[in-house]
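User: Reviewer 2 asked us to show a designed sequence for the structure in our supplementary figure. I'm pasting the structure tokens here. Could you produce the per-position amino acids so we can include them in the response letter?
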């Protein structure tokens, strides 16, 4: 009996030794899971863009990375992305810069009056320059996340309302206007004589329908993808008050689990496609504008002189806004220098 028991132990040990390499190889071949959270609906061009990016990463990684895209705020609204990244609840997000200003105030630099009404090309120069680098450094330090490449355009933000026509700035007075976050948008809303309200995007349709607010600050693409005309939006004042930018970020903890070749794949796939992605976003905004008009939303456009005059009025308050938003002097200087260089 003792001899038989001993033999069984030897055979069992041998079996474990034989199986161990197979177990280790299976574990080594297990793909790394990347969960990406977006709050916009599946029809939004941001979603289509990120869906394409994740598919390209999976293909280039040869099965070593598995991605899951959670849309429509299924996991988190963008305003909670910072916390989700810090707690390891997701591995990737592409939040609007405005949604992380509670943790990184400098990300609100788009709200500086000096940038009001500028073209997309001008915004790219600022974002791709020192201002974007400064925000990227803070994202890595404060959100435990890494920016994988140039930012993705959303497009120009404008004013939209339900019942009141918006033919001029004066028509904004007294309206309760939803914004997507950050003190800069709230400040501009008050500057125009309106009342600011911050509500996560997934709750906006209901808020508009129930009259919780009278309008919102957003883009034509977001109006079209969410079909906000069904929630009562009827008017727009297209002043290009700021350009929305999405920041592609990956958790540093996830990034460090990637071997160097997979890290290279992430950055290469993004950089090789960003020009195409930006062009698709611009096309989507133009197409969305036509769709908005076709659904009876009337769009008023301030003249160049009106935009310049409003920018000048707001510039007198830029130092106060920067202090209110906790935008650092270094960021203000970086933005100013990029504009001067152009």
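Assistant: Here is a per-position design you can include in the supplement:
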């Amino acid at each position: 009996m003792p001899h038989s028991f001993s033999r069984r132990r030897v055979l069992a040990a041998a079996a474990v030794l034989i199986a161990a390499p197979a177990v280790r190889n299976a574990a080594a071949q297990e793909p790394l899971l990347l969960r990406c959270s977006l709050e916009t609906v599946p029809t939004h061009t941001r979603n289509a863009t990120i869906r394409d990016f994740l598919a390209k990463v999976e293909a280039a990684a040869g099965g070593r990375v598995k991605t899951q895209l959670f849309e429509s705020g299924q996991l988190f609204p963008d305003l909670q992305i910072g916390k989700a990244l810090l707690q390891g609840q997701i591995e990737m997000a592409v939040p609007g810069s405005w949604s992380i200003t509670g943790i990184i105030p400098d990300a609100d630099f788009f709200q500086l009056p000096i940038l009001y009404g500028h073209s997309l090309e001008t915004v790219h120069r600022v974002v791709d320059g020192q201002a974007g680098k400064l925000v990227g450094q803070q994202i890595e330090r404060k959100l435990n996340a890494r920016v994988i490449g140039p930012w993705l355009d959303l497009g120009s933000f404008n004013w939209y309302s339900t019942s009141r026509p918006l033919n001029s700035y004066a028509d904004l007075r007294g309206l309760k206007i939803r914004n997507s976050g950050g003190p800069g948008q709230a400040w501009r809303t008050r500057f125009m004589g309106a009342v600011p309200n911050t509500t996560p995007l997934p709750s906006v349709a209901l808020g508009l329908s129930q009259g919780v607010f009278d309008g919102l600050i957003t883009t034509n693409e977001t109006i079209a993808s969410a079909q906000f005309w069904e929630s009562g939006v009827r008017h727009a004042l297209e002043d290009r008050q700021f350009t929305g930018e999405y920041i592609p970020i990956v958790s540093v903890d996830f990034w460090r689990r990637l071997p160097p070749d997979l890290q290279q794949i992430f950055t290469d796939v993004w950089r090789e496609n960003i020009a195409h992605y930006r062009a698709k976003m611009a096309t989507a905004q133009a197409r969305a504008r036509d769709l908005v008009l076709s659904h009876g939303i009337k769009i008023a456009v301030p003249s160049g002189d009106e935009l310049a005059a409003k920018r000048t009025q707001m510039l007198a308050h830029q130092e106060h806004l920067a202090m209110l938003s906790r935008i650092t002097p270094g960021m203000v200087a970086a933005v100013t220098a990029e504009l001067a260089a152009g």
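For the response letter, you might also mention the following. Residues 1-27 have pLDDT under 50 and may be disordered. The chain has one domain: 32-341.
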